[in-house]
User: What shape does this take?
Amino acid sequence: ARGFLDGADDAPLVMLRTEMEHSAERLEFERAALLRDKVRRLEVLQEQFARIRFGVEELSFAYVAAAQSG
Assistant: This one.
């Protein structure tokens, strides 16, 4: 799960897409639709985490503290 949220591992999406395709081939369209919706939600979640990672990694600021002597 951590790899997925870090953007390093797409295995959950691949697994769900594969199962969705198999469900459609077996004419289990309702199950395929549910899996499609899960894939979409995970893709949105993955995009949101990518934006958060960018903000943390690229938009961090370092402030120089003044020494006691000035």
Summary: The chain is about 70% helix and 0% strand.
